[in-house]
Amino acid sequence: MYTPGFAAPEQYRDPDRLGPWTDVYGVGASMFACLAAFAPQAADARVQEDHLVSAKKIWAGQYSDDVLEVIDWCLRLDPLERPQSIFALQKAIRDIPPVKRKLSFFGSLKKLLFSEIGA
């Protein structure tokens, strides 16, 4: 059983080739859906004619390039081109450097006030 958009290509055509990389595809599809608010193109349709625009192209400048590259990596049609285990995926995600965010006006004010009073 599978859900279109979240199922890897091998789930449609070759159930003997399922493995952790199959689950990795589903994780990537879930991350894509969290950003897009809709599922990616179904893998069986992508195999015929791939219309899926990469996460890195869609959300460039809005999210970390490293995060977007991980999503695109998970959604590769060829199972051998995806992370081969959940542990490999977890390592890739953990290795993404944190993004330094700009402080909001109130965050800057709070920092200034606390630095002035020595707290």
Task: Describe what you observe in this structure.
With 119 residues, the protein is mostly helical. The protein has a single domain, classed as Transferase(Phosphotransferase) domain 1 (Transferase(Phosphotransferase), domain 1, Orthogonal Bundle), CATH 1.10.510. Helix content is 54%, strand content 0%. The protein contains seven helices and no strands. It has helices spanning 9-13, 20-36, 43-48, 55-58, 65-74, 86-94, 105-117. Helix 2 packs across helix 5. The radius of gyration is 19 Å and the shape is elongated.
Biggest sheet layout = none
Q: Radius of gyration, Cα only, in angstroms?
A: 19 Å
Termini Cα gap: 57 Å
* CATH level-four homologous superfamily name: Transferase(Phosphotransferase) domain 1
Uncertain residue ranges: none
Helix/strand-derived category reads mainly alpha
Overall average residue pLDDT: 93
Tally the beta strands. Answer: 0
Count of helix runs: 7
Proportion in helices: 40-55%
